[in-house]
Write a structure and sequence with these properties.
By secondary structure, the protein is mostly helical. Helices cover about 60% and strands about 5% of the residues.
């Protein structure tokens, strides 16, 4: 993730209100001239056309490269004096960064309490028999492995929910990942261990989620995966559709279905593409064929 990526995504949101500016931005994008200064200029122009107060929420600043955090904050603050910037982050020991913000509020215990309540509520509803002490032990393992990150807690609970017995759940709980990267590695290992057809479905699901020109709905994703994994000459694509719930399960938490579309868990996006999908096209010709028409215009996404 870079400052240019942040600004380009911000530009898309602001410039939908200014069609003439949007046209110019797309022209620059095609010529690969999307530089920080140009993007900032376009966003500033768009902000001037908005009469109401504008609030920008920048979530998880601690996940942005430490060497660029201060530059990012200063760049955003310089866009417009009328822009209200709200930043969330875990603790960052950077005096200059804190000085750049008008006010800071430190929250210590609330996140841990919320996370504990969330984990316990999910543990209580697992589908196997377990005593209160056993559930408390499982909750403790999930809490420790989650390192205060709700995403990891969610994925760990999802993993435990697939266990059919307390014995199996205890074994899984002792091996839970403690970082998003480690959790990604575990997911890839499980994906590679699936049988050929399930592995093919999972890889195509990941590819279409990332490479589609616009975000896909779950129904569109199911149709896309069916069309790229099966030889449908003379057949109805609907007959090859795999239910969306199954496709998401095969991806082991790397892909989630939101209210309007399907997307990668944000923490996995920059890791997935270089490590998994591009090399997969060499092993699966159908995937390469499906991706060939859309891959070039999407390679800018994670640069």
């Amino acid at each position: 993730m870079t400052i240019d990526v942040i600004l380009s995504r911000l530009a898309v949101q602001f410039l939908t209100r200014a069609s003439s500016i949007t046209h110019q931005l797309r022209s620059l994008q095609k010529r690969k001239e999307m530089k920080t200064e140009i993007l900032a200029e376009f966003i500033t122009a768009a902000l001037k056309s908005i009469s109401s107060p504008t609030f920008l929420v920048l979530d998880a600043l601690d996940e942005f490269p430490s060497s660029s955090r201060l530059s990012l904050i200063r760049t955003l603050l310089e866009l417009s004096p009328d822009l209200h910037l709200f930043v969330t982050s875990r603790h960052i020991p950077d005096g200059l960064l804190h000085a750049s913000l008008q006010a800071t509020i430190e929250l210590k215990e609330s996140n841990r309490t919320d996370l504990e309540d969330y984990i316990q509520s999910k543990i209580d509803n697992l589908g196997f028999q377990a005593t209160a002490d056993a559930k408390a032990a499982l909750a403790g393992c999930v809490m420790k492995a989650s390192s205060g990150i709700f995403l990891l807690a969610y994925l760990h609970i999802s993993e435990l929910s697939r266990c059919r017995s307390l014995f199996r759940a205890r074994d899984v709980a002792m091996k839970l990942a403690t970082t998003p990267r480690e959790r990604y590695d575990h997911s890839v290992e499980r994906l590679q261990a699936k049988d050929n057809h399930d592995r093919l479905l999972a890889i195509h699901t990941l590819m279409w989620t990332w490479a589609a020109k616009r975000p896909l709905t779950l129904e569109e994703l199911c149709l896309a995966v069916a069309s790229s994994t099966e030889d449908l000459r003379g057949k109805m694509v609907e007959e090859a559709v795999v239910p969306g719930r199954i496709l998401l399960e095969l991806c082991d938490g790397l892909v989630v279905a939101g209210r309007d579309n399907v997307e990668f868990m944000s923490q996995f996006r920059s890791t997935l593409i270089p490590m998994g999908l591009k090399s997969s096209t060499q092993r699966f010709p159908a995937l390469a064929q499906a991706a060939s028409a859309i891959w070039p215009r999407n390679t800018h996404r994670e640069q």
